Amino acid sequence: EDQVTQSPEALRLQEGESSSLNCSYTVSGLRGLFWYRQDPGKGPEFLFTLYSAGEEKEKERLKATLTKKESFLHITAPKPEDSATYLCAVQALSSASKIIFGSGTRLSIRP
Amino acid sequence: GAVVSQHPSRVICKSGTSVKIECRSLDFQATTMFWYRQFPKQSLMLMATSNEGSKATYEQGVEKDKFLINHASLTLSTLTVTSAHPEDSSFYICSASLGTGAEAFFGQGTRLTVV
Fold first, then answer.
1. For the segment B76-93, what is each residue's pLDDT rounded down to a tens digit?
2. What is the 3-state secondary structure (H, E, C) of B38-58?
3. Measured between beta carbons, which residues in chain B are less than 8 angstroms from residue A31?
4. In this complex, is the C-beta atom of A91 within 8 Å of any C-beta atom belonging to chain B?
């Protein structure tokens, strides 16, 4: 069964304190891995898509990396406005367009 | 990125009534859309896959007679919660992608409260 596990469940950082969020996945062939940001009461906002091990993508203070078993979302020198829930999701080769989400990491950045 | 619009953003209804939620892809055609439900502080739970011109595919445990999905065109899918009860109160979100392997874009979500 396809599965996505994110850790930690919650993370509190001081402004400027860099860290990483983890997404471990088990799929019968990965078609794509996605990172989203979700603010309270809103739909998820797309951040990155990764397709193959070794791939990296960057956007402002965020960088996503991918291995054969997990993905990391690195956040460098975060600001309070980076506070949100970060969701990881995967699409398996066997599942057409269906996307399965992890439980998310609630990130809080203190000024 | 592509834009997906969901309406309404909030709705309060009486127990026993039905509520319709619309999901539109504004700048692209979506043969497939997805409907999710999200409980507080939890992740998105896929309810069903909506296919244009054919019946929706429901996930295990989701009542198809309670959550009616219609995908009448390449830009519009609707979710109707029939005979709503307080336990149906939740945050419902739709998404659409540009194709298999492509990222999905999400609507703003609909907060449903059944009183």
1. 999 999 999 999 999 999
2. ECCCCCEEEEEEEECCCCCEE
3. 100-101
4. yes
